[in-house]
Amino acid sequence: MLEDNDSEDEYIEYMKVTQDVLQVENASRLTEKMVLNGHKEKICLDSRATVNVLSEKAYKHIYGPDSFQDLEKTNITLVMYNKLTEKPLGKKRVWLVNPKEKKRYSIEFVLVRGNTRSILGTRDSQQIQLLTVNPNNIQAVNTLSQHVYQESK
């Protein structure tokens, strides 16, 4: 089960809390069917997304038309991969079941208007072991060198 106290990738910009939602271009290769409230939902595993996203249409189908009153308010603004921004309708922590292993996980989703692709972000995709990052294979690059920093003063 995921912890509520895990750090979130939120940042302050012009006094608004924002989070990045970045979709991969070829998402069809990184999708998995998961079960939410007894309904199978095709979810994109997105290694660049910092939040989990569920569309208004999928939420209504899975939880019913009267379930919108159960949403928690959120002060985040989503920043899409194309730099467009959107205010979510709300957020909700739900049980997600991986049908292959029959395990269930408590996952928080933000709900967005319309009929967009459902996304499971990088943190939760890694925590439920659907994506793996091999840090030993990644070379860290310091993008802010002393020389550049000193010249920009």
Gyration radius, rounded = 17 Å
Annotation field: number of helices: 3
Oligomer: single chain
Amino-to-carboxy terminus distance: 46 Å
Helix content: 10-25%
Number of strands: 10
The chain-level mean pLDDT equals 78
SSE order and pairing:
Layout lengths: L10 E3 L2 E6 L9 E6 L2 E7 L7 E3 H8 L12 E5 L4 E2 L3 E9 L4 E10 L5 E3 L1 H6 L18 H6 L2
Parallel strand pairs: 2-6, 4-10, 5-9
Antiparallel strand pairs: 1-2, 3-4, 3-8, 6-7, 8-9
Task: Give keywords.
disordered C terminus, 3 helices, mainly beta, four-stranded mixed sheet, 153 residues
Structure notes:
The structure is a single chain. With 153 residues, this protein is mainly β. Helices cover 13% and strands 35% of the residues. It is built from three helices and ten strands. The strands form two sheets. It has a six-stranded mixed beta sheet with strand order 5-9-8-3-4-10. The longest helix has 8 residues, at 56-63. The termini are far apart. The relative contact order is 0.22. Mean pLDDT is 78; it is low at 1-17, 22-28 and 144-153.
